[in-house]
Amino acid sequence: MFPNDISDSPLSVLWHFATGYLPDFLNRWDGAVGWVRWPHRGVQFLDRFAIPRKQKKAIHSPDFELRFNTAFEEVLRATADTQRCYIQHHSRQTWITPELISALLVLRKTGHAHSFETWKNNQLVGGIWGIQLGGLITMSSMFTRVTNAGRFAMARTMLQLKSRGFSMIDMGMVPDHRVHFGAEWIPRWKYESMLPELIRQKLSISDDHRCPALPWQINLCEPLLRLWRSINHRLERVKRLPPMVTAHQNRPMIAPPFSV
Fold first, then answer.
1. What are the sequence ranges of the domains in the chain?
2. In the chain, what percentage of residues exceed pLDDT 70?
3. Rounded-to-integer distance, Cα 110 and Cα 215, Å
4. Distance between CA atoms of 6 and 15, rounded to whole angstroms?
């Protein structure tokens, strides 16, 4: 339906997330960026979410305040800032392209994109942005300006989402610092098998933010893509089968009694 390069089309962003893709470096580390389907997906099942004992004080700190969608663009651009420490320690590049930023700003207006923010002394000090498609929430990138501010946004948002009926968060990857909260890798087939039900759930992140409608194009075309993938998967399995050996191929060769 859409090519796998990153464009500024909001529908393209929703389509790719709804069908199992995520934006990333094509070689996983740096360089060109596109929509990819890696063999495994990092997720957080909310019934397995747990705050490590050493983190509880910070996560429940009265110094921090959780807000939703009050500074979406600032959160988005902060996560894309190549000068932040995490990016500097890795590729020094970001997969959050200008085209993706443009699409996400439109999706905030339609309710399909959210920012989960940490505020301290009325200042934005950390946050995460993500996409919402029904019961699917992504937490794709996080930034922090003071210690534990990003973890606060992540953990407190997950507690909120669990209370609202959400069951899983798409983390994309599983960074080391999230393993202790219960994030895990699952096979691509398992992740994608969960998507059809998730994206058609009617859940909201709070009373102030209604569940955005699933675009009709996704409602119509996603089942067709699923069918095509199933057929293609079966064809690939058939191709990998060894060639069949018929009975006459195993018989010894016998010279004919005469020639024609």
1. 10-236
2. 89
3. 11
4. 12
Which ranges of the chain does DSSP label H, i.e. alpha helix?
Answer: 10-18, 56-59, 72-80, 85-88, 98-110, 149-163, 176-179, 188-199, 216-240
- Give the residue carrying structure tokens 């064809």: 235
**CATH fit for domain 10-236, picks 3.90.950.10, 1.20.120.140, 3.40.630.70, 3.40.50.720:** 3.40.630.70
* Distance from chain centroid for Cα 115: 15
Closest residue by Cα to residue 110 from 204, 210, 7, 8: 210
Q: Which has more confidence, 237 or 148?
A: 148
Is the distance from CB of 119 to CB of 125 less than 8 angstroms?
yes
The residue among 159, 170, 100, 158 whose CA lies nearest residue 133 is 170
Region label for 111, one of left (φ > 0), alpha (ψ between -120 and 50) or beta (otherwise): left
Torsion of CA 9, 175, 56, 186, to 10 degrees: 80
236: confidence class by pLDDT, cuts 50, 70, 90: confident
Note the pTM of the prediction, 2 decimals: 0.89
DSSP 21: -
Residue 35 per-residue DSSP state = E
Under a CB-based contact definition with an 8 Å cutoff, are residues 113 and 107 in contact? yes
